[in-house]
Design brief:
Butyryl-Coa Dehydrogenase, subunit A, domain 1; about 15% strand; Butyryl-CoA Dehydrogenase, subunit A, domain 3; 4-stranded mixed sheet
Length: about 400
């Protein structure tokens, strides 16, 4: 694998680094799981868009910059190294956006993607249901065709930041006689549509990170259907692949966390070395982040050559979710009892976001398809093992 950058790639890196150095907010934005922070992050996303740095790998005519995946990895490395704000419109930009690129009509692409890139529209997922979490094929929420509309009824849950978002996308059963993977359709809808009720669900940190969405005879234009009616499972699996693969969790995110972990260890080394396992854990976590980055470059090289990844995205999802846990669990071991303090506590010291990250990392093995389900996919589709 050749990791030598071209002069054009080096020039792009320098451009991104210089812009971020001048424009990254000096003060951290409020949490995007609050209304104030959500709007602050929306404004930041708009600033990125104005600089043609919001969705660098999208075509220029759809709000992007036309970069390839190597340049996207370069952008991500610089973005996280600059400690820039977390991206709030990930559901739209990194999941629905690529889905529309692959399955959307030309009219849908022109209508939705530029506004998505500029974060003029903010998106939430409408996947999980109370009785259909990791088993997405068990969805029961209905979308029954009525002329040029669908009538939606049912409930979705664990919809990230739906309390603040403008739109949602998800799967609904359009054939009431169907079961499992059949008869599902992939729809987009504005969350201010009559008949939509949204109730917040508090996360471990007490913030409104999630929501339930209730649909009571909600009318959605049929033009908001992505792909063919009843063929939504294929569309959703592509979206899930983007979520489990590189796009949602770029390696730069974990490399930056690993660098911060090393700094935390060095600042607390005398106390940390009382536990002989901590030093090894720090080394393992740092090496894991670097290995994930090298794997990402290898994957991008394969995609550039026209290869498909498919079920391998399940391996990727397990790696990044468990790596995130390892990084934050090690930080909490270094901090000891101080790690349980909120960052706002006077005695928190260098506990800068570690508790928040630790709490969020607990969800990693669950969202984007639980790791137990991913291991089943690997066993069946990659290893050819029989179902239990």
């Amino acid at each position: 694998m050749d990791l030598t950058y071209t002069p054009e790639q080096q020039s792009f890196r320098q451009e991104v680094r210089s812009w971020l150095a001048e424009n990254v907010p000096k003060q951290k934005l409020a949490s995007y799981d609050t209304k104030e922070g959500f709007e602050q992050h929306r404004a930041w996303e708009g600033k990125l868009f104005d600089a043609r740095l919001s969705m660098v790998m999208w075509p220029e005519e759809l709000g992007g910059r036309g970069c390839d995946l190597i340049e996207w990895l370069i952008f991500e490395e610089e973005y996280y190294a600059a400690d820039a704000p977390m991206r709030v419109n990930q559901n739209g930009q990194l999941l629905l956006g690529p889905t529309l690129m692959e399955f959307g009509t030309e009219e849908q692409k022109k209508r939705f993607l530029p506004r998505m890139a500029a974060s003029e529209d903010m998106w939430a997922q409408a996947w999980s249901e109370p009785n259909a979490g990791s088993d997405m094929a068990a969805i029961t929420s209905k979308a029954i065709r009525d002329g040029d509309h669908y009538i939606l009824n049912g409930q979705k849950t664990w919809s990230t930041r739906a309390i603040f978002a403008d739109w949602a996308f998800g799967l609904f059963r359009s054939d009431p006689t169907s079961s499992r993977h059949h008869g599902l359709s992939f729809l987009m809808l504005p969350l201010d549509t009559e008949g939509v009720t949204i109730r917040p669900i508090k996360a471990l940190n007490g913030k409104d990170a999630f929501a339930e969405i209730f649909f009571d005879n909600v009318r959605v234009p049929a033009e908001n259907l992505i792909g063919d009616e009843g063929r939504g499972w294929q569309v959703a699996m592509a979206t899930a692949g983007f979520e489990r693969g590189l796009l949602l969790r770029s390696p730069a995110r974990f490399q930056q966390t690993a660098r911060k972990l090393v700094d935390l260890y060095r600042a607390n080394q005398e106390r940390a070395d009382r536990d002989p396992g901590i030093r090894d854990a720090v080394c393992e976590a740092w090496a894991g982040a670097e290995a994930y980055a090298l794997s990402a470059y290898n994957t991008v090289g394969r995609l550039t050559r026209g290869e498909k990844i498919g079920a391998e995205s399940s391996i990727n999802k397990i790696v990044w979710s468990e790596l995130d846990l390892k990084l934050h669990e090690t930080a909490m071991r270094i901090l000891g009892s101080r790690g349980e303090l909120l960052a706002s506590a006077p005695q928190s010291g260098d506990n800068d976001g570690w508790l928040e990250g630790f709490l969020f990392a607990q969800a990693g093995p669950i969202y984007a398809g639980s790791n137990e389900i991913q291991r089943n996919i690997i066993a069946e589709r990659m290893l050819g093992l029989p179902k239990a």
